């Protein structure tokens, strides 16, 4: 399904080790600190039960999960394989120590089941690491468009949507309502062991000087005003989340280059179809096999369309999105 848009996960065994005193994190062998005096210590947040230090982390067995706008992502088993975490090596991030640490402290203070926990961070002049929770069920993009043969029923999709909406609302309420995510899409929404949606990668956009480079697959999530203003807001986050809702309903990749979207992004394609009163044609064929859920799907469609309103001020706030999604069952 839309194979051009898929990025296969690369399970490549590696060692996160330094090349000099400590070994090299990069499989290409080029991560070498130039200034040892600038090396910091890994900083854990309160309540962490982990006993490993930076040397343990960098020497641990790792799998490369992929490379994205911010750098490389690794699955790392530490503490004699008793703990598994996700390590983001921020290769393309240029940021001062103070700004980096302040952002990490804000993100690390957020403890909520629908926001992937930032467990630790590391800063040096040449290298920055962010250590997050690991989710064995993977992310929503992989489940919807991957080759694992996983089919999500309606209840599962609704549960993921509600969980991710809660996470977005928690983010928007943090740091005196100044915090936004900036890169919400199905690949940054992971699924926990109970099947709930959890938003990941929080804080990464905030520490960059510019927005993540838009890839073919991520362009469909970008709010239209972002192109002009180059600044993320809570309303641009809501737009991106609205695209995720439409993705859940249609099973289609949001990219404007998708063959069956007529060269439109997903939100524009759905507006076009709905305007012709062909609403039933937008839903994923897998969902249409289920009985008695059409009214609920139409409700979610209406919520998704409200989120992707072209005028940012016409979009609901995250907390309102949560309530509307939770009310879907009670309204049918």
TrEMBL record:
Signal peptide: none annotated. ATP binds at residue 88. Keywords: ATP-binding, Nucleotide-binding. SUPFAM superfamilies: Protein kinase-like (PK-like) (SSF56112). It comes from the Eukaryota. PROSITE patterns: PROTEIN_KINASE_ATP, PROTEIN_KINASE_DOM. Residues 59-332 form the Protein kinase domain. This is Protein kinase domain-containing protein. It comes from Brassica rapa subsp. trilocularis. The gene is A07p026850.1_BraROA.
